[in-house]
From TrEMBL:
This is EamA family transporter. It comes from the Bacteria. It comes from Elizabethkingia argenteiflava. SUPFAM superfamilies: Multidrug resistance efflux transporter EmrE. The lineage of its organism: Bacteria, Pseudomonadati, Bacteroidota, Flavobacteriia, Flavobacteriales. The chain crosses the membrane at residues 20-39. Coiled coil: none annotated. GO terms for cellular component: membrane. Residues 3-105 form the EamA domain.
């Protein structure tokens, strides 16, 4: 829900998809997700390996995707960007079936 609102606000205020905006959203998301950690709802045990893996995931996959998303909003309409992003799961399931021979199971 927050990601959708963010996308609408980018178009409404004509914000440019730059690295500054991506870092700001990442910071605000980190603050929001730290609430369960500080209230001990879901205690997390940190280790060196887990921390390195988490940082590599956040800096590579998430930041690249978010940067491309905000940049694409400057060139395309919001509806086209959202439809493309929502079809990601369908395409990844098809590619997993074709290349990895994975099938859905219950």
């Amino acid at each position: 829900m927050g990601y959708g609102i963010f996308s609408v606000l980018i178009k409404k205020f004509d914000l440019k998809g730059r690295l500054y905006l991506t870092r700001l959203l990442l910071f605000l998301g980190s603050m929001f997700l730290s609430i369960p950690y500080f209230t001990n709802i879901h205690p997390i045990e940190f280790s060196y390996n887990k921390t390195i893996r988490l940082l590599s995931l956040s800096f590579s996959a998430y930041n690249c995707g978010l940067l491309l998303h905000t940049k694409s909003l400057t060139y395309l309409s919001l509806s086209k960007v959202q439809v493309t992003e929502l079809s990601e799961t369908v395409f990844s399931a098809i590619l997993a079936w074709l290349f990895l021979k994975e099938t859905p199971s219950s």
